[in-house]
Design brief:
single chain, 310 residues, Ubiquitin-like (UB roll), five-stranded mixed sheet, 8 helices, 22% helix, 27% strand
Length: 310
């Protein structure tokens, strides 16, 4: 008996048409969503709205073209270790925004300060539709060309830091910089704080940096916190803005000078005797004074200054 039936196998829709007379059958396939199911009612198959149907034009039919990248500075840091180098290639089959091509190579867009396509400066939304040679420059590259076409903010002093960079957040606060930090924060809250408070995002998660809402951000190259703070100071030109011991390391609020008499009941006996200068956090109320560790912190801060200026 002749019949038509629909079944789903491995995410594809099979439509075998069985012809009794000839004893032959043909199968026509069309891609569909893995979540879709073929169902029958009244002898008909009803496909979900997400089902993809074959069209007359397919990307396979488009003649591919080659895009060649020349990387400057340390941008090859973002390439796989086995693919490190200054020149890489990508084959495309359709017009694609240059941002998407760059990030397909592993480089987050906040790390790119200048894009030259065949010698001409473009922004991230420029569409690549044919073979091209593309020059990519990171922030801080000693290039004097196209200064007005730079894509990144070169200076900022307010940050949001992801939960894996707690020591970096602490160091930045020690130097007086405004840092939002929550060790339990997930990606969405981080991006919300970044966007609503206009902060630069600091993270070693390059996929997080690739979110379209990220305007300013940086991925520290080093895993060492002392080296990370130097990187951030250099990237955002913060050397002249360092103001140590002016911000609470615990909650990020500013520190205010306070008379010893106002807090004397909260001090330990020896602290009352040997110290006269105090500051109190305007947020959490934590009391700070130049204790025995103060000289070590001063030497550490001076070393950070020297390393950042070299």
């Amino acid at each position: 008996m002749c019949r038509r039936c629909f079944i789903v196998v491995d995410g594809r829709l099979w439509i075998p048409a069985v012809v009794c007379a000839g004893g032959r059958s043909t199968a026509i396939t069309g891609k569909m969503s893995l979540s879709g199911r073929a169902s029958s009612w009244g002898g008909r198959a009803r496909l979900p709205s997400s089902t993809r149907t074959l069209t007359h034009e397919s990307p396979i039919d488009v003649k591919p073209f080659i895009v060649r990248f020349n990387l400057h500075g340390d941008l090859d840091f973002f390439l796989r270790s086995g693919a490190r180098g200054r020149r890489i290639e990508r084959s495309l089959r359709e017009k694609t925004a240059v941002k998407d091509v760059i990030e397909s190579c592993g480089m987050p867009h906040p790390e790119i300060d200048l894009i030259l396509v065949n010698g001409n400066p473009v922004d991230f939304y420029y569409g690549i539709a044919s073979a091209a040679n593309i020059e990519l420059y990171p922030v801080g590259t000693k290039s004097t060309q196209c200064k007005e076409q730079r894509l990144q903010v070169s200076t900022t002093a307010t940050f949001v830091v992801d939960g894996h960079l707690g020591r970096l957040a602490r160091n930045l606060r020690l130097l007086g910089f405004d840092v939002a930090y929550d060790p339990r924060a997930e990606d969405r809250p981080l991006l919300c704080v970044m966007e609503h408070e206009n902060r630069a995002l600091l993270t070693r998660d390059r996929r997080l940096l690739m979110h379209a809402v990220v305007k300013t951000g940086y991925c520290p190259r080093s895993q060492n916190a002392d080296e990370q703070i130097v990187e951030v100071i250099r990237r955002f030109n913060l050397l002249g803005s360092i103001a140590p011991f002016t911000r609470c390391i615990r909650c990020n609020a500013p520190l205010r000078k306070i008379a010893k008499a106002e807090i004397i009941e909260r001090l330990e006996p020896l602290t009352k005797i040997y110290y006269e200068q105090f500051r109190r956090c305007a947020g959490c109320g934590q009391i700070y004074w130049p204790g025995s560790h103060f000289s070590r912190l001063q030497k550490r801060i001076e070393q950070i200054r020297l390393n950042s200026n070299s």
